[in-house]
Sequence to fold (275 residues):
Amino acid sequence: MTTFSFKSALSFSIPEIAALFTRGFEGYFVPVQMTDVALQTMIRRDGVDLAESRILFKDDEPIGVALIARRGWTSRLAAMGIVTEARNGGIGTWAMKQLIEEARARAEKEMFLEVIEQNTAGVKLYQKVGFETVRRLVGYKLENPQGKSKGKLEEIDIRDLAKLISAHGLKDLPWQLSGETIAQHTPPSRAYRLDDAYCLISNPEAEQVVISSVLVKAGSRGAGLSPVLMRAVFSRFPNKTWRVPAIFPEEMSPIFEEVGMKREELSQLQMALTL
Ligand SMILES: CC(C)(COP(=O)(O)OP(=O)(O)OC[C@H]1O[C@@H](n2cnc3c(N)ncnc32)[C@H](O)[C@@H]1OP(=O)(O)O)[C@@H](O)C(=O)NCCC(=O)NCCS
Fold:
C-alpha cells in the first residue's frame, strides 16, 4: 500500500527545493524553471515560512512541494506542485487536508491561494477541501505602446508606495499586491508617482517590463489619473513589452483596457478558506 507523508522544507537545501519545484510544475500552463535565486526571492518577498512548508513523499520518494506563506492570522498556499508521475493519485488532496489542519493548529484564521482558472485539477482540489472563490484575477500585455506624454514622473521609494497601498488599497488584495509584499520589492524595480497615482515596475532596462502595482489614492479616484500615469511610464521607457501578471482583481481591468492593453488568456481565481 502506498503511504503519503511530509517533512518540513527546512531540512532541505534551497537547490533541492528549487529542483523539486521545477519537477512539480512540469507541463504547467507557463514554463516553470525555478532557480535558487528566484526561490529565495519568492521566500523573502512573499513571506514563505520554510519551517511550515512541506516536502511531500510517496513511500520514501520526494514527489512534491507545498510552500506556505504566513502573516499574522493569515496564511497562503504559495505553491504546490507534484511530479507528473505522482499526480492524480490522491496526494494533492491528502496534503491539502494536512496543511489546513496545521494552519488551524497554528491558530490562524484564514488561508488564501491563487490558482489558474483553467487548471481543472487544481481548482477541483481546492474546492473539494473547502476553498471558495473571492474573485477572478486577470493579466494584460501591450507591445511597444506609441504616443508621447508630458506627464512628469517622480521616482519614489518602493517602501513609501507600500505604505500607501496598505492605507489606500483594497483590504482583501491578493497577497502579491498587498502592501506587505510590495514593501519587499527592491531595485532594479522602481516606483513612480504622478499626481495622486502611483505604480511599481520591474527593471525598465529589460526588454519586458512587469507592472507590479498601480494605485490611485482613495480621495482622487474617478478622475482618470491612472491612464495619465501609465502613458507617462510607457513614454519614459519606449520600445518595451509591458506585462501585467494575472494577479490583478478583475474589477481593476478598466485601468489597463483604457491604455490599450490586451487581456491575457490565462486568468486566476483568488480563493479563501475560513479556518
Ligand atoms: C494540482 C495538483 C497539485 C493536484 O495534485 P494531485 O495529487 O494530482 O491531486 P489529487 O490526485 O488529489 O486530485 C485532486 C482532484 O483533481 C482531479 N484531477 C487530477 N488530475 C486531473 C486532471 N488532469 N484533469 C482533471 N481532473 C484531475 C482528481 O480526480 C481529484 O478530484 P476527485 O477527488 O474528485 O477525483 C497536481 O496535479 C500538480 O502538481 N499539478 C501541476 C502543478 C499545479 O498545477 N499546481 C497547482 C498550482 S496552484
Residues 139-262 form a domain with the Aminopeptidase fold (CATH 3.40.630.30). The chain has two domains: 4-108, 139-262. The mean pLDDT is 96. Residues 224 and 255 are 9 Å apart (CA to CA).
